[in-house]
Design brief:
The structure holds 2 protein chains of 2 kinds. Chain A is α/β, with parallel strands linked by helices. Chain A has helices at residues 11-22, 24-31, 55-65, 76-81, 100-111, 121-137, 154-161, 176-186, 191-200, 209-212, 215-227, 248-256, 313-331; strands at 3-7, 36-41, 45-48, 71-72, 87-90, 115-118, 142-143, 167-173, 239-240, 259-268, 272-280, 291-298, 302-309. Chain A is built from 13 helices and 13 strands. In chain A, helix 1 packs across helix 13. In chain A, 49% of the residues are buried. The model of chain A has no long low-confidence stretch (mean pLDDT 95). Chain B has a 4-stranded antiparallel sheet with strand order 2-3-1-4, covered by helices on one side. In chain B, strands 6-7-5-8 form a 4-stranded antiparallel sheet, with helices on one face. Chain B is elongated and about 70 Å long. The mean pLDDT of chain B is 91. The chains are: A alpha/beta, B alpha+beta.
């Protein structure tokens, strides 16, 4: 029986609990048993049960009381140590300045020899080398498919299906909020109007800085650079330009040349950048709406384009599911 | 070497093939052919062929074969490929600033052509937009140009948006 500890029980954590339930038959058929959730923590409270928690009840409780259990904690590591688990699923809110609780929890789990699945970009963008080395040293698996592009399977695609390729570059749209805003500006809205609409629809945060200044996309660029290109870079190595300076005039000028402006993240051996770029209409990267897209340029396969939903409760949980299945396949 | 030749062949059956066959004989590669029957001079018709040969020696061999087959070479020149990219700048500047920037860029790379479009100033913003389409001979020049424009925009506090 594989025992899971979920750190973070917001949208993604709850989505994962739901997906584990939806895929009950799949697990039974493939492994002859179900993974069980033995521990859950949110920002203040926790619930643990070595025999398995009722995740439906925890979701209901979270929605009603904004807590996951009666227990309150000050140190998440103490809660993690209080129950025996096999895999930490770290989905707490990201902190791209310090790595926050996510970094602490991932580090501790790896030090204890536990496998880790995370979608938390901050720890990966800040301490990728340290974490991968720690995982290697302790014989653990550290998987993070959902950290870039949500449901878009870019990392495992590069690591597994394209393993024999030399990947020359990856260019993509890694922030759905910016793409939504720029798509709306294509239709004549100003930046301010488009941002407000994105906030009303829940695509943008109240403080949209991380999205519109390109910081969120930059964390994904760092993760791809380190994991796919085996570079040793961190957030501060990325050249970042956001979309706040894009004027309706610039959009109109681009349109007059049959182009659109999109916020593109680019990774290659000599480039690490997030910046607005001019994209010909009809080019795969001219995609509209909140979708994420990536164009991988491989030496043998040539260009490969993938796209998908970059965020969302079930979509991100699907990426975690793919990592969980990979770890369970290795165990069974 | 990528070349284009304008040949005049006798207006007889088999002459078109006869003019192209020598390119293969010198291990060349035919890229494109235009057979223009309208351009008929002294019972000869024009064949414009773009082809690749390995070196000058092979080209001389080819010219000798054409001559031996009574094919007249009226024109021959090198063909080179060009690369084009768009560069957009958003900020406070005037047309003279952009012209000077392009002039300075032309001292760094060999600019085949440039085209600049400006947005007209509007009342809501004192910023304007310039879109430069630049044509150069190689990708390396595009990268140099990109670096030059990026530095200029950074220095002069403008937003820089380049093409793919």
């Amino acid at each position: 029986m594989v025992k899971l500890f979920i750190s973070g029980f917001g949208t993604v954590g709850q989505g994962l609990a739901e997906v584990l339930k939806i895929r009950r038959d799949f697990f039974q058929e493939r492994y002859g048993e179900q993974p069980v959730v033995v521990g859950v923590i949110d920002s203040k409270t926790y619930a643990v049960n070595p025999d398995g928690l009722d995740t439906d009840a925890i979701i209901a409780r979270k929605m009603g009381t904004r807590t996951v259990g009666d227990g309150k904690y000050t140190d998440s590591v103490e809660v993690m140590d209080s129950v025996d688990y096999d895999i930490l699923i770290e989905v707490s809110p990201t902190d791209i300045k310090t790595g926050g609780t996510g970094l602490k929890n991932i580090t501790h789990a790896l030090e204890c020899g536990k496998d880790v699945i995370t979608v938390n970009k901050g720890p990966l963008a800040l301490k990728f080398q340290d974490l991968t080395e720690l995982a290697k040293k302790n014989g653990c698996k550290l998987r993070f498919e959902g950290s870039v592009g949500g449901a878009m399977p870019i990392i495992n695609l590069c690591h597994e299906n394209l393993i024999g390729e030399h990947i020359r570059s990856i260019r993509g749209i890694f922030n759905g909020t910016c793409n939504y805003i720029l798509s709306k500006m294509d239709k004549g809205q100003t930046f301010e109007q488009a941002l407000k609409e994105a906030q009303q629809l829940g695509y943008a945060e109240t403080d949209p800085t991380n999205d519109v200044e390109g910081y969120d996309a930059a964390t994904k660029v760092v993760i791809l650079a380190n994991s796919v290109f085996h570079r040793n870079v961190t957030f501060s190595d990325v050249k970042i330009t956001g979309i706040t300076g894009i004027t309706p005039d610039a959009i109109a000028q681009a349109a007059a040349h049959d182009m659109v402006i999109r916020l593109i993240g680019e990774i290659s051996d000599n480039r690490l950048e997030v910046a607005p770029r001019l994209i010909p209409v009809g080019h795969p990267l001219s995609i509209t709406g909140t979708l994420n897209i990536a164009q991988i340029d491989a030496d043998l396969a040539g260009p490969i384009t993938i796209n998908g939903r970059g965020a969302g409760r079930i979509e991100t949980a699907s990426a975690i599911l793919s990592d969980l299945v990979a770890i369970m396949d290795a165990r069974y | 070497m990528l070349l284009n030749a304008e040949l005049y062949v006798r207006d007889l059956p088999g002459q078109l093939v006869g003019s192209l066959e020598p390119i293969s004989m010198v291990d060349g590669n035919i890229i494109g052919v235009v057979h223009d029957r309208e351009r008929n001079i002294n019972q000869r018709i024009m064949v414009s062929v773009t082809f690749e040969v390995a070196n000058s020696k092979k080209l001389e061999e080819l010219k000798a074969i054409w001559k031996s087959r009574d094919i007249i070479i009226s024109k021959m020149g090198s063909v080179y490929q060009t690369c084009t990219r768009e560069f957009m700048m958003v900020g406070k500047f005037n047309a003279t600033y952009i012209e000077n920037l392009i002039e300075e860029a032309s001292t760094i790379v060999n600019l085949e052509s440039t085209d600049v479009g400006y947005s007209s100033k509007n009342q809501s913003s004192d910023k304007r937009t310039a879109m430069i389409t630049a044509e150069v001979r190689c990708k390396e020049d595009l990268d140099k140009l990109d670096e030059f424009f990026a530095d200029a925009c950074h220095r002069d506090n403008m937003l820089y948006i380049r093409g793919l």
